[in-house]
Amino acid sequence: MKIAMLDPSLFTGRYDDSLCAALAGEGADVTLLGRPMRSTDAIMPQGYMYKPHFFPRSEALRARQGEGPAFRIAKAAEYGVACALGDIRPLTQAAIVHVQWLPLAPADALLLNRLKGRTALVHTVHNADAYHADAGVQGRGYRTLLDRFDALIVHGDTTRAALLGQGIDPARIHVTPHPPMRLAPATSADLAAIPAPSVPRLLFFGTIRPYKGVDILVDACLQLWRAGHVFELALAGKPFMDVAPLLDAVTQAGFADRLVTDFGFLTESRLDAHMVRADMIAFPYRHIDSSGAFLSALHHGKAMVTSDAGMFGQLPEGVAVRSEAGNAPALAQALLPLIESAAIRQSHGARARDYGNEMGSWKDMAVATIGIYRTILAARSGLAARA
User: Cα(387)–Cα(383) distance, rounded to whole angstroms?
Assistant: First the structure.
């Protein structure tokens, strides 16, 4: 079975790599199509092919000039032209085109229109509200794109229910639980670059976006610091929002020495090093369906603090300490026992690790995904035979 896996901007490279390798392990002929690799990417194809099919010119511009307005405009324009007029033979030659992310809905519609009827189309809906409240033009029209797919894959009941609420035919929705992931392990250089904490360290890692609630986390930490509790907050990842007001609030409150920042597109091994150094990891998301970041942290056995949004609200009791989404005082109260007690941190961390060990594997995911592929191919064959 020939599969073209699409993630044009490599939004979830670790997920893509894990799934493609597992599919290849089950005998599938898989090509992952994305952008040219960056130094921060850690994809090393095992059993499948990688093709830098998208964004060659804008990525070259990014290397020369960075991610300013010129890059963003060039990237959107290049993608629009590629979707409308670009070479789609690597896609039409596959039995299945499996789209992980649709990075620019108005352009994606053009590409899907060209593919419709020429190959089977599958889409993993990582979040029913694809880019959350901060989507802008990027997600405008995303819902209508879903009708173009033969099958939609979701990772849990939260997303399934949301799609049903949007009028999606339940027969097209398939649930395949998201397995745990492992980032590239920290190197000695990564660990040396991140000083070990002398007091308990709370970590927020990954892309920093409004829906992830980092402002709520900072507010909760300020409440605890002002009450005399001693701990550090580390923020590690690329901001896609203005974080200056948050940093200023910490500085003006007199707690700048308790804030560790490492901003930018970080390598997986650098992020892994931050998890090694942390005592607790926070996911104060306002809303989310499933969180790859959370699933990539489980094996570290660190105490996890989450909101009750999406998948977090469905976790077994004790896997994470939960608080009401969007509620900074509630988050502060949830954090307090972990800050005060190493034993409580260790107990919660052990439960998080055990939960990760008990979850399904990428092999399970691959077998289930291939089953979905076969179902839709059989349906398409049946329709062709009756035509």
Answer: 6
Ranges of beta strands (E only) in the chain are 2-6, 29-34, 49-52, 96-99, 120-124, 151-154, 173-175, 201-205, 232-237, 259-263, 280-283, 303-307, 321-323
pLDDT for 324: 97
Q: Which two tokens stand for residue 344?
A: 């409580």
Distance of alpha carbon 42 from alpha carbon 62, whole angstroms:
19
Q: How far apart are the first and last CA of the chain?
A: 24
SS3 of 96, please? Answer: strand
Give me the residues paired with residue 119 across strands. Answer: 116
What SS3 class is residue 165? helix
Backbone dihedral angles phi then psi of residue 254, each to the nearest 5 degrees: 90, 20
Q: How far is CA 89 from CA 7, 114, 118, 138, 153, in A?
A: 16, 11, 10, 25, 24
The four Cα atoms 345, 212, 109, 59 give a dihedral, to 10 degrees, of -90
Q: Provide the 10 A C-beta neighbour count for residue 225.
A: 19
CB atoms within 10 A of CB 280: 21
Number of CB atoms found within 10 A of residue 385's CB: 7
Mean pLDDT (the chain, rounded): 93
Report pLDDT digits (tens) over 250-295.
Answer: 999 999 999 999 999 999 999 999 999 999 999 999 998 889 999 9
The residues pairing with 283 across neighbouring beta strands, listed in sequence order, are 306
Three-state secondary structure call for residue 122: strand
Residue type, 1: M
Q: Tens of pLDDT along 188-217?
A: 999 999 999 999 999 999 999 999 999 999
